[in-house]
Amino acid sequence: MACSVADSGFLFLASKQRPIHSTRITQVASSGTYCLKWESLPQIRSKQKSCLISLRKTNVVRAVAVPIAPSSLDSAEDRKRLSEMYGFRQIGEPLPDKVTMKDITETLPKKVFEIDNGKALKSVLISATSYTLGLFMIAKAPWYLLPLAWAWTGTAVTGFFVIGHDCAHKSFSKNKLLEDIIGTLAFLPLIYPYEPWRFKHDRHHAKTNMLHEDTAWQPVWKEEFDSFPALRKAIIFGYGPFRPWMSIAHWWLCHFNLKKFRPNEINRVKISLGCVFAFMAIGWPLIIWKTGIIGWIKFWLMPWLGYHFWMSTFTMVHHTAPHIPFKNSDEWNAAQAQLNGTVHCDYPSWIEVLCHDINVHIPHHISPRIPSYNLRAAHQSLQQNWGKYLNEASWNWRLMKTILTICHVYDKEQNYVPFDEVVPEEAQPITFLKKVMPDYA
Q1: pTM
Q2: 229 within domain boundaries
Q3: Overall domain count for the chain
Q4: pLDDT, tens digit, 9 for 90 and up, residues 215-250
Q5: Rounded to an integer, what is the distance from CA 402 to the centroid of its chain?
């Protein structure tokens, strides 16, 4: 906080303020004291040095909210401060421009690329068993325990997605036809077309955090945000309180439209869509016939929403933070994007087991050929050789609050500008999140 004491003619300025973004003026009783309060969230208490600057006597202090670019990541002190502010355990120092993907990949032990059919089968058994247990829990649980049963089952079915994810990267089995069959089957309970997702996801890996080309989530474009008032409101909700389920919109808009795929991809896309529609045409009526509409909601819809919570959460945590930039293609550097622009996040053990370590994400972006069961060994190698460049966190409220309330509209200098700075009069969902979400890491 910075305060001007009008009668004494002095201005106290606090140094090392947070990097974002606005101020407001308040008057303390009738003392003639005016205070500039920084409104950026998340609010972290820190010791601040002050300096004394002599000014001419004045009765009014005028302040203008000026966007301030994030502090430099070159300083260890700044990185530590930003880590605490954003909810990270560590923010990596910038990767030198001369480092290439080949340099990083060559430091990984060869064993992490080895496909083990036994370990792959083990992951299938874990997912099948945990999902079956989840359905049993839903069937037997009293109404007040159903949310716990849904949380378990939604997490378990996310494991099926990770299995299909490995199959799409050809890192699951030595038999490539078997991979496509298992990948298609693993995606069916999720109503996810395997081939369309595979084509889109491959582009995400090739263009990670590239401003126009990345097929995963990007910042909101100011032009799009300003185009239609109704769309603007939907975007505010979608990138705010509904963001943990925004993968549903991504699933629907990006994977069922044939116009979004290249001509040589169309036939495989049609096969996957046919499998999904067949599952819906046969599976859903069977569920309703056996359990009714309420049973369909209990046994399929609620776990499906649980899966999309993890799909959305993993995606945004892996690639979204105020200090992680999206770059134009002419400025983009693969090694910086994959190693320095991807996040490793630790979750509770049961989540990591059921989701087959998909949270160990940095080595997966260094090489998608690393099977999920080898990701931890690969990450240990990266820590030994490139540890100071890694972004690491443990899943916490402050991390989620940072993403949901700050990482919104694209800005080249700041990376992101929050909605409540762009349109404060319309950003009630964001101000609500700032008030109700806890702020501890």
Answers
A1: 0.82
A2: yes
A3: 1
A4: 888 899 999 899 888 889 999 999 999 999 999 999
A5: 11
